[in-house]
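Hi F.,

I've been meaning to write this up properly since the lab meeting, where we talked about keeping a consistent format for the predictions we share between groups. The idea is simple: the sequence comes first, exactly as it goes in, then the structure tokens exactly as they come out, then a line or two of notes. No screenshots and no reformatting. I'm using this chain as the first example so we have something concrete to point to.
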Amino acid sequence: MQSLDIRHAHGPADIARFTTEELRQEFLVEKVFVPGEIKLTYTYHDRMIFGGVTPTDAPLEIVLDKELGVDYFLEIREMGVINIGGPGSIEIDGQREAMVKQDGFYIGKETRHVVFSSDDPANPARFYIASAPAHQKYPNVRINIADIKPIETGEGLTLNERKIYQYVHPNVCQSAQLQMGLTMLAPGSAWNTMPCHTHARRMEAYVYFDMDEEARVFHLMGEPDATKHLVMGNDDAVISPSWSIHSGVGTSNYSFIWAMCGENKAYTDMDVLPASALK
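Output, unedited:
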């Protein structure tokens, strides 16, 4: 089974009047991973598609053609994949690759078939995907977390000690516009980004995972002087418009996958905001 949820773009003036429930309906995607299903979201913010592919007894393939006005899903798109579940495999135009937890892949435009499988239906792979329009075809690249030198940043005193693993990034592989990676917070840390920032040149989507079922992340969004928040649970995702801050604090440490697309691929192209600027 495959679902595609459409989310329209909104500006700061829109969310200023949103109730909590309206904010959740427009920006929050609850429970991205559903066993035996493909659950995707299409956001008009830079036309990113993101979501979870969770094969169990049978392989799963993303099929999107008329919805995108193309003959096949990746005809004019690129895609990043990170497995955060059990062992499985990904078959790319007939070539099969084993994928254990934290393995990733960059898949370039004009790839016709990508088929996802799990080795054990009782412990399924959980493939998180992010896709953006692409103007250029680049080679498919397998990405192993052991080969990535993480950025170690933050500190325990400010509750934001974390490791940032860049998967789809110029340091690792070429892409047209997509960037994607995985961030892990150290035990005792709770903030994923503080001081927070904006990057008006790129939108972003997060999915939070490796959380206890009762744990929560308070995800901050909105303009710096008019912040809003979403309370998020394990395996929930969120859309972050380019004009919005994106920062979160959890009731315990957690991990999240981030994906970006937009004007450039400069990871450090951001406008940092001190906590004193927030309201």
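Notes:
The first helix runs from residue 12 to 15.
The mean pLDDT is 94.

If this format works for you, I'll send the rest the same way.

G.
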